[in-house]
Amino acid sequence: MFLKQLYNFNKFLFYFLILSILGSSLVFYNWGAVATPIYQYGMFCQKFHQSDTQSVYQFYINSKPINYSNYNQHDMDLTQEIVANYLKQKKTNPEIFKTMNGFYTKVGLRNFLCEERFLNLKSDKEFITWLAKIIPQAATANPINLSLEQHNYVYKNKQFIKLNSLKIIDSLAFVN
Questions:
Q1: Are the C-beta atoms of residues 66 and 147 closer than 8 Å to each other?
Q2: Residues in contact with 150: Cβ distance below 8 Å, sequence separation at least 6, in sequence order
Q3: Are residues 28 and 81 in the same domain?
Q4: How far apart (Å, rounded) are the C-alpha atoms in residues 151 and 101?
Q5: Whose CB has fewer CB within 10 Å in the chain, the N or C terminal residue?
Q6: Containing structural domain, residue 20
Q7: Strand 64-65's sheet: what is its strand order?
Q8: What span, in angstroms and rounded, lies between the C-alpha atoms of 65 and 58?
Q9: pTM of the model as a whole
């Protein structure tokens, strides 16, 4: 065991490590914030529940839907995951800043926390302009009028049933 070997090797380092673990655990427990993933029990303490609703992002180039059947699995996953992560980041990053702000304020380090590090300052137009370079059909169209919709499906009785559609980005026009 590592701790036993450390105790035999250097008692000072052993006690320092134990006090660090106990001290930081006490601080994290009292303040309700976790500053290191080593002690983050909350990441693993509950079951992962997968939603029965699946989201698919549909791009429209010049008002025509992209045909994903022409894509290989990697390219299709790439376009879907990039959009999903971008939208998730826009939603969760302000929440992360709020949590970390409370922690940094309590330890007196609030002056070192910059809100810009937690927020994506890119606009939807900048994101879609960048994303159009990845989508093969967008690279050949000029000018491009690109829009994005989220279609939500639920799987019942061995088939997908469409629940709803949400317009994410409505018709951004630009020239390649």
A1: no
A2: 55, 56, 57, 58, 165, 166, 168
A3: no
A4: 35
A5: N
A6: 2-43
A7: 64-65, 53-61, 144-156, 159-174
A8: 7
A9: 0.61
- Which ranges in 61-123 belong to alpha helices (H)? 73-106
- pLDDT tens digits for 92-128? 777 777 777 877 787 777 777 777 777 777 777 788 7
Amino acid at 4: K
Residue with tokens 């300052």: 121
Instruction: Return all residues near 77 (Cβ < 8 A) that are at least 6 apart.
Output: none
> Are 28 and 72 members of one domain?
no
Q: What is the DSSP letter of 104?
A: H
Query: Do 72 and 94 reside in the same domain of the chain?
Result: yes
Evaluate whether 144 touches 66 at the Cβ level (below 8 Å).
no
